[in-house]
Amino acid sequence: MDLKALYAVIGGSGTLSSNFPLGANDPGVVLIDDNLQFATPYGLSPVFSLFSVDEKQVLTCKMHGWRSGVSRADASRQIFWVFREAGVKRIISEGGVGTANHLLDPRDFVIPDDYLDFSVRKDVELDGKYLLIMRDSLCSEVRSTLVATTRQHYSGRIFTRGIYANTDGRHFESPAEVAMMKGHADIIGQSICPEVYLAREIGACFAGLYFVVNYGEGLVAEWSHEELKDIFYDDAPMISRIIIDTIRRLPVDGQCSCHELRKETLLKGIYNK
Ligand SMILES: [Zn+2]
Predict the structure, then answer these.
(1) Are 64 and 100 in contact (CB under 8 A)?
(2) pTM
(3) Alpha carbon of 69 to ligand 1 centroid (Å)
(4) Could you give all domains of the chain from N- to C-terminal order, each with its CATH number?
């Protein structure tokens, strides 16, 4: 693959309705190609766009590459195989989330610093060459840049840490499930795992910006589909602008230790061929 991009954005529900990246209406953004597909060992990749922010090249796909007929594990592997081949070093993800913490409200931003994985997708590595250490799994430098940029664009509440509980979906969680997670997690969604593992496997930094769109079932108040829809359409351009400006401010080589947190596996011949 001769394409090179050092930055990547995994688009979620926060930017879906805004035609990312052009929906940000940023004069520094140039769309280079919006119909790229790649043959990967895990099947044909989803469609990617390649764009530039000033001089920086960025690869992006919509909704984690999810599409019918392709398992989420395969969609994730296709995306990260492409990122690795393109030389991606810094990955930003975004999405809408529900709450597990009763202090949170719709339209709060959370930039989590840790996660809990309740998904059952386990076989999601690329080639299993590494022991992945999940300490500081969400890059401190990408996170602090996201926080600073979000503060410039948003006057509402921004939480600079939090725990993201990843469930399998696509349905939302039951009241009993939310009650179990309360006290252990702050937000609930379906799209931080396996991305956080795969980013570490390819030696890239990963962090995400998550916008609260609904209360977890049984918490605070029944959420309304109308409000969820309003957030989906109204706030997407702002989220797009935050991500574009984050890329603009983020150097490609950071001082963080993300790339040191993968070590050669000691289980050779068991998990990898
Ligand atoms: Zn990092």
Answers:
(1) no
(2) 0.94
(3) 33
(4) 7-264 (3.40.50.1580)
